[in-house]
Amino acid sequence: xxxxxxxxxxxxxxxxxxxxxxxxxxxxxxxxxxxxxxxxxxxxxxxxxxxxxxxxxxxxxxxxxxxxx
Length: 69
Known about the structure:
mainly alpha
């Protein structure tokens, strides 16, 4: 999954403030901005797991992450 994929999904799934959108689009310019961007990425990972689990329930299939092996 590319860098742009998580950014686009996160922007669709969350109502973001203008400075968050700018940070996602332009990238961090300081350590604190990098921490904020990382926080958004971690939240996207949590949202992704929830969305994948909901889709799996609808399809009666199982969600299988590569690190669960």
